[in-house]
Every structure is written in structure tokens, then in C-alpha cells.
Input
Amino acid sequence: MAIASAGLSKSLRRRWRFSEKLIESFILLNGLLAIIVLLGVLFLLLREGLPAFAYTSPWQFFFGTRWYPVSEPPTFGILSFFMATLWVTLIATAIAVPLGVGCAAYLAEVAPASVRETVKPIVELLAGIPSIVMGLIGLLLLSPLVQGLFNLNTGLCGLTAAIMLAMMSLPIIVTVSEDALRAVPKEFREASYALGATQWETVWHVCLPGALSGIAAAIMLGVGRAIGETMTVLMVAGGALAVPYAPTQPMMPMTAAIASGIGNAVRGGPQYQALFAIALLLFLMTFAVNLVADRVLERQKRKFAR
Amino acid sequence: MAALTISRRELTQRTAFSLLVLATAIVTVPVLFIIIYIVVNGAGALSWEFLTQAPSQAGKAGGIFPAIVGTFYLMLGTIIFSLPVGVLAGIYLTEYARANWLTRLINMAILNLAGVPSIVYGLFGLGLFVLAMKFGMSLLAASLTLACQALAMTITTSREAVIAVPREYREGSLAIGTTKWQTIRHVILPQALPGVITGAILAMSRAAGETAPILVVGAAFILPGLPTSPFDQFMALPYHLYTAAAHVPGMSKVTIWGIALVLLVVVLSFNSLAVFIRIRVRQRRFGS
Amino acid sequence: MEIRTTFRKRLHDIQQELMAMGGMVEKAISLSIEALKERDLKLAHQIIADDRKINEKRFEIEETCIQLIATQQPMAGDLRTLISVMSVITELERIGDHAEGIAKIVIMIGDEPPLKPLIDIPRMADKTIDMLHRCLESFMNCDEKMARSIAAEDDEVDDLYDQVYRELVSYMVEDPKTITRATRLLWVAHNLERCADRVTNICERVVFTVTGKMYETNVSKY
Amino acid sequence: MEIRTTFRKRLHDIQQELMAMGGMVEKAISLSIEALKERDLKLAHQIIADDRKINEKRFEIEETCIQLIATQQPMAGDLRTLISVMSVITELERIGDHAEGIAKIVIMIGDEPPLKPLIDIPRMADKTIDMLHRCLESFMNCDEKMARSIAAEDDEVDDLYDQVYRELVSYMVEDPKTITRATRLLWVAHNLERCADRVTNICERVVFTVTGKMYETNVSKY
Amino acid sequence: MNMNHALLNNRAAHNNETKLKTEQVSLFYGTFQALRNISLDIREKAITAIIGPSGCGKSSFLRLFNRMNDLIIGARVDGRVVIDDTNIYDRDIDVVELRKRVGMVFQKPNPFPMSVLENVAFGPRRHGKKNRHELEGIVERSLRQAALWDEVKDKLGQSALALSGGQQQRLCIARVLAVEPEVILMDEPCSALDPIATLRIEDLMRSLSSDYTIVIVTHNMQQAARVSDMAAFLMMEKDRAGILVEYGPTSQIFTNPQDKRTEDYITGRFG
Amino acid sequence: MNMNHALLNNRAAHNNETKLKTEQVSLFYGTFQALRNISLDIREKAITAIIGPSGCGKSSFLRLFNRMNDLIIGARVDGRVVIDDTNIYDRDIDVVELRKRVGMVFQKPNPFPMSVLENVAFGPRRHGKKNRHELEGIVERSLRQAALWDEVKDKLGQSALALSGGQQQRLCIARVLAVEPEVILMDEPCSALDPIATLRIEDLMRSLSSDYTIVIVTHNMQQAARVSDMAAFLMMEKDRAGILVEYGPTSQIFTNPQDKRTEDYITGRFG
Ligand SMILES: Nc1ncnc2c1ncn2[C@@H]1O[C@H](COP(=O)(O)OP(=O)(O)OP(=O)(O)O)[C@@H](O)[C@H]1O
Ligand SMILES: Nc1ncnc2c1ncn2[C@@H]1O[C@H](COP(=O)(O)OP(=O)(O)OP(=O)(O)O)[C@@H](O)[C@H]1O
Ligand SMILES: [Mg+2]
Ligand SMILES: [Mg+2]
Ligand SMILES: O=P([O-])([O-])[O-]
Output
């Protein structure tokens, strides 16, 4: 026995595993890449975008209503773009949230399996349709409809864009909300039924509150998607440079402004820099939305944990 | 009295459920309509020629072959640049990262990368790959740009796939005296693989549909031939569709819907593949 | 906060029943001596009849103990207590049998004239009853020390028995006619002596219950 | 497939130990009668010494039973078996004490001349040993019927005892000088009679182990 | 045994009336028969334990009594399940009303992710009690009955999920008590708890048994033995359908079962 | 007691050598002290059970022996943990090598989602055994030792997840045996199993105890009593740090514990 243990104590001594260390550091490098990319984006936007404020004061930039990139001197006021983004996002969210959450609740709680099995792929299908195709639909199919319905000069307006954006953010809202509802343990439902609650009461008082955090996150993600969407709004929103006062007016959200302007902008010129400045603003806005969404999720999670 | 209460509760329930059904219908019916509409209207444009010829007369005639090939090149480039990084970063975050500021920072970066608008990636690609690194308006620059955009997705899906491997497997493996890398290599990766692949396919499908970034970094509307090196310009379906629909006056509607149909088929078939894999894996894991 | 209240309550109930049984047995001994003194045949018959009840009580308690062990999985001190209860009731039942034995002797003696005034035998009985009573008390109170000291008192009973034995033998030797009667009284004394021995067994169980160790007191002489 | 093999093995071990203890006790009785017949004081002393071992064995088995109950949570038949074992070893230990008692009487008798040739007492002893042996067998085999029939045989021992008693009393009446010696033989017979009673107790336990019901055999006469 | 057992009487048999009854009940999941011809009378105000090997249908049997099996698609019940004098599988039975009378506690403590107070008030609220004062009264009474009041009275507003496992399970019991049921079904209520919390719940069950009819399913044989007045042993037949093997007073089932199969299971000879 | 216990000897005490030893070990999670000054000698080729109330640090204690706590960030160990003659918390100890010698079985059966054969062969493969023939030999031996061979020999190629819970747990034991450990740690190995499967594992543990040193943590006191040779009772102090209250032969701990706190816990008076 004693001999065996002597042997053991020797063999327990550490071995040097070189490949293990090598792999470890390589993996770390890849982990860091995420930060590098993000910082890279930020750095580039700052480098190319900040010089824009040499031509125009921040006040003018943010609250100016006139965007004349080629006049001498050029003016870069983005208020109309910003307001357009605001209109489009708000209306899209207002349409998508009740529909999305309602649909998710139906799928997760009420629908028989057969209905769920057919509806879910359809929603996933919607998620897969590229934004350019949705833009096409808005351009060719929806805008005449809106034009007729509201008796407008053109159907290419904020409302049309918002409806398309609503459709495009629906899949996220539906799937994330449904997942959140499904994550509510079966035990809660059983407990509720066992106490003599009806199915609707169970959904309303137990499942939806239980999934609230997930649903909130879903909505945030939907908002994020609507803010950043480019092609659809570029094709559908109308592209007017004036500050929009009603959703039925043609308008030019920030993303569209960048996309439509960048092709003509001289590399390194003032307009180029101003567009980067808009991109910087967009970046910061989505950054903020995401951070808030994350915080909300965290707080919700913590609320029910110990 | 009791009967009355019950019936009121019953009534509430029926009303509420009807509203839910309505919402579901509003979500689904337009989707079906859109798909069917595109298929019906685009099918007329499809022909052997349309799929295998280069465009002519500013896209009004000829086919879209270079755009199809360009899109596949883009998908390939995207995945080559983003998948390995995504998987390794996912592994780093779940297996190696300690709960410290660095990890929090990385996670925040990923979270935000996913939310950055595609047009912003476009500008990033333009500034970095096209101009600073002098790749020019090229397939390489576009692939790298799309790869940066896909990174958030590949990292997140890989991370989720790795996290989904139960802790018990890790402990079970480590507890019989294997090294960490052996555990990752032989227990965790095989388990996470389907999830990783699903994520990768979705990222490719997403890349195929992206328009805004390539609009900025270098897609061309018409090119006579296929790109021969990564530094060549290229055509891509979404951009082709955009230009055809928005900037070519007198473009025939059938051609437009035809391009849309082809794009849709490419994107949706990849999506279906991902769904298929996911279902297969789920069956294998819980079945037998 | 105390938990397992049901189990504790049932354990307590069992101990109460044990005490009740102890009371029955004490009474049986004391009545049997009473019957002997008074030549009270009716009382003797009564004692014999009552012994059935003691036996029944014993089985009732035993069954409850077994049920408690089977259903409540007592451990450590609780288990020892239950095991001891089962052992103690066996002893009590046997003491009851001895009382019954004395009653039977009373019936055999019938109305024969007394051999001699009874002095030492009642003293033995009193001593035994007293020991039994205090011994059960020590069991209830888990008083190990008291139990040990009671066990030591068994010697007094043994001495009394020796005394009775010698006296009765001398009677018999003097007058062979008394032999039958003397033998019968000898039986009585013997029964009492056995009772006291059993009390010491109970004392051992008290020590066991408290300490978990079986300590053997002096072994009986006969 | 049998499970709980450890528990079953230990239960089996205990039963083996019980049988071994039974063997020790049988031997003690038979040797004590041997010593009585042969006036073999050395043997008598040996028996007294060996009784310690019986006592120790009893406590050893009891402790194991308690450990098994505490650690293995036996139920139903298994639990009844363990409870019965604890009860049976108590009886065996007492039977051993009776054998020791006989050995002590042998020492008291010393080399006094024999009162009469021993006939009925050895017969009692043989009968008792035989009953005990078969009774333990019935316990091992869970043979309830056999146990009941053995219990019924107790009457034979009681009859033998009555015979011995009457005979010895007549000796005493005829010749008072024999009183002491006769009393001693009477003790011996009494011890044997008690032994047989205890065998019937064991029989009751066999019935209990098998059926879960306590059935009371005839109650002892003395 | 035919003696009078004063000692035993204080435990069982306060009451010998039948509260629940199954008559030749069979349960099918699709084509699979999970229970076969089970007839059992469950005594009022006593604790009845259902024991048996894994998968023999204990949970399925328990869920007969509040028609929880209704939630499973393809489940079908033959025979009668009677509460008081009503067959609960009759056409015109209101399941919601039934579940008010027959409460249920589950294996894993499952308080809703709300405050302690809201959890207990959930049932009464659904059944139309809105008066805040009245609700508070109900909450206090139920929590007291569940032996939890003293531990939570200062944190009624806090999330129920912050309680310990054992407290959560007692909260679930309080939640059931708040709707004033007559019967409480419990499906392995302690299997997720540590030994101490388990003993607490057992104590609670015994104290509730003077007012409620309790039916408990448990894997833990020792627990069934400790806590119940009556015990039923279920087993699977060859085709995996559950049958009733033996039913009787707990003390008898665990000391002297009448059926060889029960004895084998209880003594761990089964396999 | 000072008698010679022939009956007892066949159970414990084949061997009285110490295999594992903790010397004044304290464990910290960050600033929270989970274990305080625990010194314990664990006997070779015997089963040692660790019992105690929830959260007293049983699992943490067990995981000291294969340095599983290393995986937890912020965990720190003071004192010495010795296997044979080596302090396993020495700087130059190879944790991977250590875990080969000190195997572990977990609460939930966790076979890898591979075939039965691959599960058992996993460890040997990682440690460099590639020869197919040799591996098959190891697999068969390990499965036999784990009393599983007969049940799975015809389906070695099938997924391990298709086995029943009890079989899965025995497979996990076989997987550990395949790397020929000297010590097997088990953390509530039966808490996810039904009673019959539990008794099977217990039988298996006893049969393994003739060749291996086994340390088991269990919530189930009855199980600790049934299966172990030695038992250690841990408890929390006021600040929730775990301390060792009593350690001794199982038979003594459960019939006659020396410490009042052990007695209270064991008899359910605790709380
Ligand atoms: N929803 C269901 N659909 C089909 N079969 C089911 C369903 N629920 C249970 N079963 C089957 O019915 C049988 C009884 O299941 P049940 O859960 O009632 O058993 P149990 O005795 O409670 O088991 P356990 O002790 O594991 O909880 C099992 O064979 C199970 O596989
Ligand atoms: N990773 C960790 N970080 C911080 N504290 C921990 C960690 N793991 C355990 N603890 C704490 O250490 C103490 C002991 O935990 P441990 O899991 O060892 O207890 P246990 O006795 O095994 O409990 P249980 O019986 O519930 O399994 C507990 O107070 C627990 O909250
Ligand atoms: Mg169940
Ligand atoms: Mg633990
Ligand atoms: O998805 P987009 O390219 O339109 O932002």
C-alpha cells in the first residue's frame, strides 16, 4: 500500500500541457474580436463623422430643418430625418405590439397544436423575407392602397412605411413573446386551473404577467429593428426633405437619408462626413435602446429571483 | 347567482379568445398573400435564360445569372469570415470567460452589434475595408462588411448552443479526468454543432437578403461577367432588385417580381434548411 | 420549533399507557398479598381475571410500538425508547403473571389456617411495589442514576427472601404437617423475589434508553 | 431480481446467530441435568461460567437488531422478524438463566446422597430441549403450524411437573429429613417447567412473525 | 386483531364516512390504458396515501379527482368518480366549480411570481371576492392554517419566489386553503424539499386532516407510512395498466400487508 | 460497547487505513465561508456518508476531494486535503490527473448523449487508450462491475439516453469505473430516482465498497443509514459556515449519537 501511494504522489504532479494553453489564448483572442469590431465601428464613425461639426454647429445639425448638402456653404440640419424616424417607428410599434403579443398569446396558450404548427412556419416565413422585397411590396402594392384609402397625393408616405415596418418587426415580437410565454412553467398554469380559474383568467393573470420581461424585450427588439431598417423606408417613405407633421406626409427617415445620399457624396467631403454623423447618431440611438432593453430584462429577472 | 358568475367569466373568455384569433389572422393572412402574389406574378419571368444569362439593356432583357452567383459568393464570404470567430468567441464566453468587467464588456458589445442598423455597417465597411484598407468596391470588402454584421448573430447562436449543453455533461467529463479542451472538443462541440450550424445558415440567409450595406460598399447594377477574384466588383440579387425597381424607368413588372421570386427562393430555402436541421436535432435528442 | 409533533405525541401516549399498565401491575401485586392476608378467594379470582387485561394491554402497547417503528422510522433515542418500552411491558406482564401466580396460591390455600402471621412477605411485596413504582418513574424521566440505585436495592429483597426461606424450612423441619402450607408460602415469596428481579431488568432498560449501553446488574441468585 | 441484498444478508446472519444461541442454551440445559445426575460440581461451575456467554450473545444480537432497525428501516414481515428475534433471544437468555439456576442447585446439593433415582426430571429436561429445538426450527422455517403444535406440548411438561411435585411432597411428608433435598429437586423441576413455558412464548412469536397476529397459548399454571 | 385499541383510535377513524369514491374506474391515454378497474372509497377527514412503483399511475389516479386529466388531449375515463353523491364525470358538471372544491398541491412548489399576498388572494379573487378587507382576512386565515403566518406576516408584499422551498410549498397549500376546498390532493408534495421542510409539511398535513380530506401520492414509502391513515398500493400489470393491489389502514399495510405483492414492494424485495 | 461483535465485523472495518483526509479545511466562496475547520479521516474501501441540513456545505465538502470547486470563481480553500500522502491543493498538483483517481457521480444521471459503449469508453479514450479491443474489454468490465452488463449488453450501440433513470445512473458509475479510480464521490446519486432504482444503486454501492473508497452525500437520512459504514454530520453555524459536528460508525450515529445536535437532527427534532 505504502509503495503504491508513493507512486501516486509522484504521478499527481502537474504536467505541462502546451497545446491546452495555446488553444486557450487563441479562443480569448476571438472573444475580444467582438469588442474590437464594435470599437472599430464607433471609432470609424467618430473619425469620419465628427469633422462634420466643423462646418455646422451641433445645434444647427440636430435642430436645423434644412438639408442642402450641395449649396455653398452646405447646410446640414437633420431634424426632418429624425422626426421621420420617430413617426415611422412609433406607428410601426403601435401597430405591431398588440398584434404580435395577441398572436403570441394565441399560439402559446390557446391554439390547438394543428393551428400552431401551421401558423408558426408562416411567421418564420415572414421573418425570412428580405427587406428589399418588403420594400417592393410597399412600393407596388401597399402605397396605392394607402393613397386611395386616405385620399393622398402619393401613397409613398410615413404611414405606408410604418405599416411595412410593423410587418417586419412582427416576427421578432411574436417569436420572442411566444418563447417567453412558453417559458412560463406548466406548473403555474396547472396551479391556476387547480384553483378553479378559467383558461382566459390563467392567461391574463398568470401567463402574461409571468412572461412580461420577455415580452418587454420583444417589443424593444422590434423597436430596434424599426429604427434601423433602411431599404423599406428608402423605397416607401416618400423621401421628402421637409419636417413631417403628419404620418401621411412623405418623409425621409435617417437610414434612408444615409442610403440615398452616400452614393453621391464625395469621399471625405462635407456631405460624406455629415452622413457619417447621422450614422453616429443612429448608432448611439440603437445602442441606447439595446442597453435599456437589456437593463429592463435584467431588472425583471432580478425581481423574481431571490 | 353562481350560474350567473360563471357565465360572465365564460363570456369574458370567449370575447378575449376571439380577439386573439383576430390578431393571429391579421399577422398571417398578409404573409400568405405576399408569398402567393410574388410567386404568381414572378413565375412568368422565370426561364432557363433568365437564370443563366447575364443582363442586357440595363437589365430590361437577359437574365440575372451574375447576380445569383454574386449572392452565393457573398454568402460564402460572410460565413467564412464570421463563423470561426463566432464559434470560438461563443466558446470563450461560456467556457473560459470569468465574471469580470471584460466579459461584461464583450457581452455588451455583442448585444449592441446585433442592434446596429445595417446601413451603419455599410458606412463602416466603406470607411474601413473599401477606403482605409483599400480593398475597393469589391466582393472581399462586401463579404467582410456582411461578416461583421453577421458576427453578432454567429456569436450569439454559438453561445446559446454551447450554453444549452447541460452543465452536467461538462462536470461529468471533467470529473473523469479530462482537460478542459478535451471536454469542449469531445462533449460540448458535438452537442452544440447543430445549433451552431443552424445559426450559420440563418446568418447566410440573412446575408443573401441584405441590401443597404452592399449598396454602400460596392455592388454593381450591371456587370458583364462573373467576378474572378475577391477584389472584383460583383452583382447581387437584392441590389439588382432595388435598382431595377426604383431606378430603371420602364422596367417590366414581371421581371421585377421575377427577381424578387428568385431572391425569395434563395433566402427561404436556406431558412427552411435551418428549420429542418433544428427539427431533426430536436427529434434525435428527445426521441429514441 | 419542534417538528414531528404527531410522532412525538404518539410516543408520549405510549409512555402514558406504559405507566397505566405499571399501575395495573402494582395494584395486582398489592391486591394479591391482600388476598393472601385476608384469605379473600373472591379477590384472588378477581386478580386472575384482571391479569387478562394486563396481558391485553401489553399486546396493545407492543402492537402500537411496532406500528410506530414501521411507520415513523424512529432513530437514536426515540428508537431506544420504543425498544425499551417493548422490553419493559414484557417484564411488567411477567410481574403481572407472578401476581396472578400468588392469587392462584391463595386459592389453593383456601381456608386452611394460617401457618404463621405474615410479616416478611408483605414487606417484600411493599418493597417490590415501591421499587417498581420508582423504576417506572425513572423510565419516564430518563433518570439513569435513579434506575441504577433502584437496581441495587434488589439485594434487600433477596435478603428478605432468604430470611423467609430459612424460616419456612425450619417450620417444615419442626412440623412436617406444615410442609404443604409452608411450600405454598415459599412459592409466594419466590414469586415476589422474581418480581423484584424483573424490576432490575426494567432498570437496565432505563440505563439503556438513556445511554444506549446495556449494563447488566447482578444476576439473580435462583 | 432480489434487491436489498445487504439487508437480507444481515437479517440472515442474525437468524444464524439466533440458532447458535439456541444451541448454546440447549446444551446448557442438558449439561445441567447431566451435572445433577452425576453430581459433577466442576461441570456445574462451567455451566455458570458459560451463562455469561449466553448473556453476551443475547446483547450482541439485540444490538445488531436495533442497528438494523435504525439503519435499514425494515417493514412488514422483515420488521416482525427482527422484533421477534429480540423477543426470542430474551426468552432464550432466560432459559439459559434457568439452566444456570439448576447448576447452582447442583452446587448447593454438593455431595449429599441422592434422594431418589432421577427419572421424571431428566424426562422433563429431554422434552423441554426437544421442544426448544423444534421450536427454533419452526422459527427459521416460518412454520406457524409446527409452532402451534409445539406450544400444545407444554401440557406434557406441566403434567410431568405435577407428578414430580406430588412425589416429592410425599417424600417430605414421609421423612422430614429429606425436606431440604426434596425442596431442591423441586426447584430443579420448577426451573424446567418454566423453561417449557418460555418455549411456548417463542412459539407465540413464530405465529406472530408469520401472521402478524399475537396468539396467546395457555397461560402458565404457577 | 380483535382488541380495542385506545391508542390507535386517537389517530385514525375520527370519521368513517366516505368522501370520494371511484367505481370501476379505468383511464386511457389514447389507446394506452393507464388505470384498470379501480374501486376505492376515500374516507372523509383522513389522509389517504397512494403508493406504488414508478409509472404505475399514481399521479394519473390522483388527477382523476379534480379532472386535471381533462387538460391532456386523448385522455378518457371509464367508470364513475363520485364526490359526496355526485359523479364528477357527468356531462353537466362545472369543472371550475369542482376544482374549487377539490384543491391540488403539486410536486414542485409553484407559487405564482407575485407577492405572497397576491398568491393567496388569487383564488378568491377569481371567484369574485374583490373587497380588500375581506381578502386580507382570507389571506391571514389561510396562512395561519398553513402554519406560515408567523414567518411571512411581515413580508406579505414581497415576491413569493423569495421564500425557501418549504415555505413556498406551504404557501401553495395556503393558496389552496383560501378557496375553501373540501378535498386536497397532493402529488409528491415534498419530493423537492429537504428533510426538515418535509417533516414540517407532514406536520401541517396531519393538522389539516382534522378539517380536510387529503389524498397524497408519494414515492417515499416512509413518508406514506408516517403521514397517512389509509394507504392504497397500486401496481402495473403486464400491459403497464395500473391496478389496485391492496387498500387498508396504514398501520396494517406497513406492518402486516395481506397481499404478497404489497409485502414484497414494501420490504424492497420487488424488482 | 466492549464486546466482540462478530456480527458487525462482516460489515465494516475490513480495513482501517485512511485514504482521504481533510486537515483543518475551510472553504470560502468569495467572502462567504461555506466550511470551517473540518478535519476528517476517510477510511479506505468503506462507504462514508455525509449528512446534514440543506445548505450546510455537504456538496461543497465532497467537491473538495476532486477539486471540483476549482470551477467556481472565487472559491478558496484553506487547510490541507490529503489523498494517501499528497496534499491535493499543493501548487504543482495536476487536477486532471487527480480527477482520474477521484471519480465523481452526480445527482442527476448525466450520461453523454452518445451510445452506451461510447459513454464508458469516453474516459479511457481521453486518457490515450485507442485500441478497440482493449477498450471493449474495459467497457465490459466496467459495466459488469456496475451491475449493468446483462441489461445493456445487447444494446451497447444504442443511445444512453434511451435507458431508464436507474440504468443511466449505473452507466455513469460504469463510466467512472472505466478510468479505474481509487475513490468515488457521489453527490445525492439517487435523489432523481424512484425507490426501486435507489435500492439497486445502494446494492451496487455496497458491492463496490470492497474495492473502492466511496464518499456519498445524501439528503436522505435513511439512505445514509442503510448504505454507509461511517457517517459524518455537518451543520451550519450562526454565520452559515458548515462545521463538522460528529463523525463515527454509522451504526453508532443512528442508534446512539454522542452529540445532542446529531440526535436532534436524526430524530427530526431539529428546526
Ligand atoms: N399525458 C400522457 N400521455 C400518455 N401517457 C401518459 C401520460 N401521462 C402519463 N402517461 C403514462 O401513464 C402511466 C402512468 O403515469 P403516471 O404519471 O400516472 O404514473 P406515476 O405512478 O405517477 O409515476 P411516477 O411515480 O413516475 O410519478 C405511465 O406509463 C405514463 O407513461
Ligand atoms: N458557487 C457558489 N457561490 C457562492 N455560494 C455558494 C456556491 N455554492 C454553494 N454556495 C453556498 O455554500 C453553502 C453550502 O452549499 P452546498 O451546496 O455545499 O450545501 P449542501 O449541504 O450541499 O446543500 P444541499 O443539501 O441543498 O445540496 C450554501 O450556503 C450555499 O448557498
Ligand atoms: Mg407521479
Ligand atoms: Mg448539495
Ligand atoms: O434590412 P435593411 O438592409 O433594409 O436595413
